[in-house]
Specification:
six-stranded mixed beta sheet, 16 helices, globular
């Protein structure tokens, strides 16, 4: 056997470089094709053929895959035998689908036609560890039916897909390819006609009902079309029919004032269509679900378990903001499973038509506990909400962020969660540390006006700017203040504004200073043009 303990050694160590040389000798003597092998570095990922010098350089710069301890891609045979190639015996147990394991993780244990809801994972929807009291008999029957679908063969003799796994894979393809609901139903009809023995749902509607039972759905929250309020919360706003600001109707009305798009349900009750609907995806159940999965659990602990061998800035954990936060909140930092979040939002045109001015605003959350090659990928982001159009929310974006802020406050105090890797309960906390947006988006999120001569949020009232007379644009020229005192550009008049720069760099304002400024701006009358910041420099106090 080849010694591979060097894989966990620091990249800059001699042990690691000697191990890379040993790997290259083995790989090029067993799996070389025209003097090249598959490069196993993190960036190439066994997908590009490279020569010896290139592979050696990549591994010393980017590291060797830690879990690649059996070099089967480079000529080493697997130690374990291929179980699937062995003949089947008569007393072989029933087929065990991976989907069945996932359902047991989410809902509990299903065995011998009985549903036993004692799995700690039921904390997704109930903080009671027993969880059995939190589900009605109807809910238990639905979960039992879903578990049966997860362990039912798609057709007699099918060893690869169960009924539920096929529907989930099919639905996943629909989402990735942007297929319509009608095309999904038409393909289902074709499959049922071609394979009548297959146990397939009758339509897209039936498929959606099955997938919805898996959990992690979204909530529909009605909103005012003028971005005034959400019909949500414990203050009684949920039952209102009109906005409490401008008395605008909650529902779409026709010329006679009657609710349009009326639908009659089984109880013969009229349902009116709301004027604006916010799609909100609850955060707490999603974070809990991540720790139920053993694979994502290990990734979420990467920032604390994997050391930085060379001290370079590669991940937010290596930066000053992360370390400064840990020094202020040592209790939060002591639990490595606590989640650090960043919020990103921007508007887009869903129709891709320049003649259309519709603006939809998705709000996404990025989890910075993940490794640096994961947290910015689409697979690992968390959709928080979709703010509907047709107009951008502007400064009223805080109205739509209320459900998220309520959950973040709850997560700061901690919620019960289950760690599948350690098989124990723990208090899961989360903190929102950053927001990511363009400069106009920063205006909406922070409340600081970025369209004036005092646009820089760091320089604050000390922003150095002028208004171009003929260009009719704001020009900011104080950037030389951030250079060292002896830098040659500070004394260069010709290339800049004709003056030498001897001022020190401005000091970014503290949080208390910003709160005092916001309080003073609220007292300032709107027609006060003599104030230093003008009447609208601080537009609001941000919900953050």
């Amino acid at each position: 056997m080849i010694d591979k303990s060097w894989i966990e050694s620091p990249i800059r160590s001699k042990e690691f470089s000697d191990g890379v040389v040993q790997f290259l000798e083995f790989a090029f003597s067993n799996a070389s094709i025209n003097g090249k092998i598959l490069c196993p570095c993190i960036l190439c990922g066994f997908s590009i053929m490279r020569n010896r010098a290139e592979v050696f350089s990549h591994l010393l710069q980017r590291g060797f895959p830690e879990k690649y301890t059996c070099w089967h891609m480079h000529g080493e045979n697997r130690a374990q035998s291929n179980v699937e190639s062995l003949p089947r015996v008569h007393n072989e147990p029933a087929r065990h689908y991976p989907m069945h394991d996932m359902l047991n993780d989410v809902f509990g244990v299903f065995d011998n036609n009985e549903f036993q809801d004692f799995s700690p994972s039921n904390l997704l929807n109930n903080d009671n560890p027993k969880g059995d009291e939190g589900k009605s008999q109807e809910e238990r029957e639905e979960i039992k039916k879903l578990l049966e679908d997860g362990n039912q063969e798609l057709y007699d003799g099918c060893r690869k897909y169960s009924k539920l796994s096929f529907i989930v894979h099919f639905y996943h393809i629909k989402v990735l390819c942007g297929a319509t609901d009608k095309s999904f139903s038409m393909i289902l009809d074709l499959l049922k006609d071609a394979f009548p023995q297959a146990k397939l749902p009758s339509s897209f509607y039936e498929s959606k009902k099955i997938i919805k039972k898996l959990g992690l759905s979204y909530n529909k929250i009605d909103g005012c079309p003028n971005h005034c309020m959400l019909y949500w919360g414990s203050s009684g706003d949920e039952n209102r029919d009109k906005c409490n600001v401008y008395n605008t109707s909650r529902y779409i009305s026709d010329e006679n004032g009657v609710g349009a798009n009326v639908v009659i349900d089984d109880q013969h009750r009229k349902k009116r269509k709301p004027a604006k609907v916010l799609r909100y995806f609850p955060l707490i159940p999603r974070l809990k679900r991540l720790y139920i999965c053993s694979k994502t659990t290990e990734l979420l602990k990467w920032h604390a378990t994997k050391a930085n061998p060379d001290g370079l800035l590669r991940h937010p954990r290596d930066g000053k903001a992360w370390k400064h936060f840990d020094s202020f909140y040592p209790d939060f930092a002591s639990e490595t499973r606590n989640v650090r979040l960043a919020l990103a939002t921007d508007g887009f045109n869903p129709f891709g038509n320049l003649s259309s001015s519709v603006s939809i605003w998705p709000v996404m959350l990025y989890i910075y506990n993940y490794p640096l090659w994961c947290f910015m990928k689409q697979t690992f982001l968390v959709m928080s909400m979709i703010i509907p159009g047709p107009k951008m929310p502007g400064n009223s974006i805080d109205v739509y962020l209320q459900p998220l802020i309520a959950e973040l406050k709850q997560l700061w105090n901690g919620v019960n969660a289950y760690d599948s890797s350690t098989k124990e309960m723990f208090q899961l906390c989360a903190a929102l540390m950053w927001t990511i947006s363009d400069f106009p988006g920063l205006d909406n999120l922070s409340g600081w006006n970025t369209h004036t001569l005092l646009a820089c949020p760091l320089c604050n009232y000390d922003t150095d700017s002028i208004r171009l007379k003929f260009g009719r644009k704001n020009c900011f020229m104080g950037h030389r203040r951030f250079l060292p005192h002896d830098h040659k550009y500070r004394y260069n008049k010709k290339s800049f504004n004709g003056f030498e720069e001897h001022r020190p760099a401005p000091i970014p304002p503290s949080g208390l200073t910003l709160l005092r400024q916001i309080k003073e701006s609220r007292k300032r009358p709107r027609d006060d043009s003599t104030s230093k910041a003008g009447p609208k420099q601080w537009k609001k106090k941000s919900i953050f």
